[in-house]
Design brief:
This protein is mostly helical. Helices cover 73% and strands 0% of the residues. The chain contains ten helices and no strands. Helix 1 runs antiparallel to helix 2, helix 3 runs antiparallel to helix 4 and helix 4 runs parallel beside helix 6. The longest helix is centred in the N-terminal third of the chain and has 47 residues. It starts with a helix and ends in an 8-residue tail after the last helix.
């Protein structure tokens, strides 16, 4: 092969390599950025417009799996949905996303008429380990629903503030439900010592 031919061949190879790099970059953009954003947009639209609460809740679950903190706003809006299923899903989603901007709206759900929604809000605040939610969560120990009370106990455990020990001891002392009493005592031990208490069978 002549020097001229070799040079031409080399030029063609360089162009081909550059084209492959460009195509690879476009594929990466589509797979990692454009396609996920398109899917996120579809899920947000479903949450906003679907009439079936179960469809909305599923869309919230899928949206949270994308781990896109930018989705927090749509979840906060969903906290006001007329259906408790959607409100509960949105609360859980904010907790799993670690969306601190959801703290105040979640506090507002602590007085929701649906026990499952109150429970979801407490659990989310616990996941967020939000110090400012400590006092509101302590109040949830007096909730009429046992699942909400249990959620409050473990939320206080997650937040990890020793100031919760005193109200937990008062709760445990008056508690007749052995499961709740045990959960409270376990949390007290963890907060006081950092060690998990071994329950007696």
């Amino acid at each position: 092969m002549s020097a001229e031919g070799a040079s031409s061949w080399g030029s063609r190879m360089a162009v081909a390599a550059a084209a492959l790099v460009f195509i690879g970059g476009m594929m990466y953009y589509y797979v990692k950025i454009a396609k996920p954003q398109k899917e996120i947009g579809r899920l947000k639209k479903t949450i906003e417009t679907a009439s079936d609460p179960w469809v909305k809740a599923q869309a919230i679950h899928e949206l949270v799996e994308k781990k896109d903190l930018g989705s927090a706003s749509i979840l906060i809006h969903a906290l006001n949905d007329e259906d408790a299923i959607v409100r509960r899903a949105a609360a859980a989603g904010l907790g799993m996303l670690g969306a601190k901007k959801g703290v105040e709206p979640l506090k507002g759900l602590l007085t929701d008429k649906a026990p499952k929604v109150r429970q979801g809000a407490v659990e989310a605040l616990g996941l967020l380990k939000e110090q400012s939610a400590l006092a509101p969560i302590v109040k949830m120990l007096k909730d009429k629903d046992k699942n909400v009370q249990r959620a409050a106990i473990f939320a206080l455990q997650r937040i990890g503030d020793k100031s919760a020990v005193k109200p937990l001891k008062a709760f445990s002392k008056k508690q007749r439900d052995l499961d709740l009493k045990g959960a409270a005592e376990e949390t007290i031990t963890i907060l006081e010592t950092g060690k998990i208490q071994q329950r007696t069978p």
